[in-house]
Amino acid sequence: MLRTQRIESVSIRPWYSPRISKELNWTTRNITGTLNEVTLPLPRYEQVTLRFTGTLVLAEHNGVKLTPITLNAINAASKLGEISVLVAGVDIVKIAEQVAKVDQVKRVFVSDHKKLEHQLPEFVAKAVETLQKQYKFDYVVAGASVFGRDVLPRVAAQFDVSPVTDVIAIHGDDTFTRPTYAGNAICKVRSNSPVKFLTFRGTAFKPAKESGGNAKIEKAPETDFSFDCVEFVSQELLKSERPDLQSAKVIVSGGRGVGSADNFKIIYELADKLKGAVGASRAAVDAGYVSNELQIGQTGKIVAPELYIAIGISGAIQHTAGMKDSKVIVAINKDSDAPIFEIADVGLKADLHKAVPELIKAL
Amino acid sequence: MQWYLSATEAMRALVAVKRVIDYAIKIRVKPDRTGVIKDNVQHSMNPFDEIALEEAVRLKEKQIIKEVLVVSLGSPKSQETLRTALAKGADKAIHVEVEEAVAEKIEPLFVAKVLKKIAETEKPDLIFLGKQAIDDDYGQTAQLLAGLLNWPQAIEVDGGRELIRIKTPAVISADLRLNEPRYATLPNIMKAKNKPLEKKSLSDYGIEIAEQTQILEVSEPPVRKSGGFVEDVPSLITKLKEAGVL
């Protein structure tokens, strides 16, 4: 009887890694043949059944709504097992309800505490640590945004684990691909840590559907937030009607060639016409044309929209590392030797001050 | 980053620096796919670490910091990086030396463990690190270290700016926008030769390397091909319509 139960739970875990599935198939075949002689289960499998198992995704939000990268992280995590999501903050019932409806999500843990209001990593990490100690998930994951990057390694340190950050592909339960050297070398790694702490690059995974899920919402365990070495003072947010850079389908990006902060308005105008977001190269940020939140590249945001229009951008590796996974790349530059043309699907050698207004007019 | 420090007595800073392949070098993957070619390739201090160091040195010039200790974990060649740091204004250096082959396998968690040990003996008030090393691109060491020490961490945010107040001791990770690092002048390079540089090994800190993340294969990224040029704006629009993105 006991054995039968175990076999049943094998079949409900088809998501597990190819390697393990193979082992399990083998076991199952043996069972059907000679049930009495078989010693079960495999050590690895035993470990799986004893634990609560599954994956904990850290939800990122701004207090009002869920950040889109969370959906990409949930979808990536769905390859790794049953999904639980932690929503940490203050008055976040609405966000928790939104998460509960997301496809594939099974459980939503809500950690509601005054100290979590500004999402300071010191406190969010504490909430994650407490939850992990109690439920012992196999994976603790988040989107590879500043939020995920700040919180996840801090928690991993408590469990003596080396996190694998900025994962762009999942090959099995412990094998992942991540870019190194600003995307100039692609590295396949195997993580041997008992629990895997991962961050997923948002643009490498499709977002999970926002409906279809019916997760149970429950209270996260009580956490000690008495740490008092950090406090939030104020914040200055970039206000914009335009779509968020990391989830925009179209991005219009300007570089030093744009010439001035004032000239940048044609970039905004074109972006508005295409309902896209505005980006910039580091050179444009350094020259003071736009604020650094718009920077795309190795040291800024990594994006992969359907259409990326690079205007007055030379295409240094620092910049291309952040946008070369875009579906279609358009480059407008007066220098036909600019390296951006080497990766552009459509190149236009022209003076941007003439070509961009013409483009705006024609659209 | 703006500093509102009200220290009554001068503080001590620890800065961690890493020797990496120079950012301007176009790297090449080894034919056997075990890593990238590092021999006879220009190396320099990780750009984010230069910024972290610069910030510490500036605080020293403002007399908020009394002493800047710089640390590097790596092969014997990391000493060059430490000398550069001394030439830029650090007061003394610690080199935690490992063999070249071992250096390849060191993960951020182990760097964080070594830095924690050094922090326990040197008792710095602030630890400065770059936000990520441009070779492994992990971006973890500062957060791991802050987690191990249970100190607050100050790292950049998305979508704007955030002002936080932290109590020292604290871990600070430097973003590119923090400052513009200085060049080391020739007299300072000469002077740096006489500054103290202490050599240590992992066993001095009782730390053994236990690899958690095994590199299976390193490959070239898929190459994007140039699609060529169009003559004018109307043909640009036609092309984009054909591609289905307009």
TrEMBL record, chain A:
Q: Entry cofactor note text?
A: Binds 1 FAD per dimer.
The record's annotation in InterPro entries points to: DHS-like_NAD/FAD-binding_dom (IPR029035), ETF_a/b_N (IPR014730), ETF_a/FixB (IPR001308), ETF_alpha_N (IPR033947), ETF_asu_C (IPR014731), ETF_asu_C_CS (IPR018206), Rossmann-like_a/b/a_fold (IPR014729)
Annotated FAD binding sites: 256, 281-282, 295-299, 312-319, 333
Q: Do you know which Gene3D superfamilies this protein is assigned to? A: HUPs, TPP-binding domain
Keyword Electron transport listed? The answer is yes
One of its Pfam families is ETF
Cofactors (names): FAD
Q: Which GO terms describe its biological process?
A: fatty acid beta-oxidation using acyl-CoA dehydrogenase
User: Is Membrane a UniProt keyword of this protein?
Assistant: no
Q: Identify the GO cellular component terms for this protein.
A: electron transfer flavoprotein complex; mitochondrial matrix
Q: Where in the cell is it found?
A: Mitochondrion matrix
Domain of life from the UniProt record: Eukaryota
PANTHER family, per database record: ELECTRON TRANSFER FLAVOPROTEIN ALPHA, ELECTRON TRANSFER FLAVOPROTEIN SUBUNIT ALPHA, MITOCHONDRIAL
What family is this? Belongs to the ETF alpha-subunit/FixB family.
Summarize subunit and interaction data from the UniProt record for this chain.
Heterodimer of an alpha and a beta subunit.
Q: What does this protein do?
A: The electron transfer flavoprotein serves as a specific electron acceptor for several dehydrogenases, including five acyl-CoA dehydrogenases, glutaryl-CoA and sarcosine dehydrogenase. It transfers the electrons to the main mitochondrial respiratory chain via ETF-ubiquinone oxidoreductase (ETF dehydrogenase).
Recorded protein name is Electron transfer flavoprotein subunit alpha
The organism of origin for this protein: Setaria digitata
UniProtKB/TrEMBL annotation, chain B:
- The answer, when asked if Signal is one of the entry's keywords, is no
Mind listing the UniProt keywords for this protein, alphabetically?
A: Electron transport, Mitochondrion, Transport
Compartment(s) where it occurs, according to its Swiss-Prot or TrEMBL record: Mitochondrion matrix
GO biological-process terms attached to the record = amino acid catabolic process; fatty acid beta-oxidation using acyl-CoA dehydrogenase
Main location (coarse class)? mitochondrion
Decide whether keyword Transport is in the record.
yes
The cross-references to CDD domains, in alphabetical order and at most eight, read: ETF_beta
Extract one GO cellular component term from the record: mitochondrial matrix
List residues of the Electron transfer flavoprotein alpha/beta-subunit N-terminal domain.
33-209
Q: Provide any one GO MF term from the record.
A: electron transfer activity
One Pfam family assigned to this protein is ETF
Gene3D superfamilies with a match to the protein in the record: HUPs (3.40.50.620)
InterPro entries found in the cross-reference section: ETF_a/b_N (IPR014730), ETF_b (IPR012255), ETF_beta_N (IPR033948), Rossmann-like_a/b/a_fold (IPR014729)
Subunit relationships: Heterodimer composed of ETFA and ETFB. Identified in a complex that contains ETFA, ETFB and ETFRF1. Interacts with ACADM.
Similarity section: Belongs to the ETF beta-subunit/FixA family.
Role noted for this protein: The electron transfer flavoprotein serves as a specific electron acceptor for several dehydrogenases, including five acyl-CoA dehydrogenases, glutaryl-CoA and sarcosine dehydrogenase. It transfers the electrons to the main mitochondrial respiratory chain via ETF-ubiquinone oxidoreductase (ETF dehydrogenase). Heterodimeric electron transfer flavoprotein that accepts electrons from several mitochondrial dehydrogenases, including acyl-CoA dehydrogenases, glutaryl-CoA and sarcosine dehydrogenase. It transfers the electrons to the main mitochondrial respiratory chain via ETF-ubiquinone oxidoreductase. Required for normal mitochondrial fatty acid oxidation and normal amino acid metabolism. ETFB binds an AMP molecule that probably has a purely structural role.
Q: What is this protein called?
A: Electron transfer flavoprotein subunit beta
Q: Name its species.
A: Setaria digitata
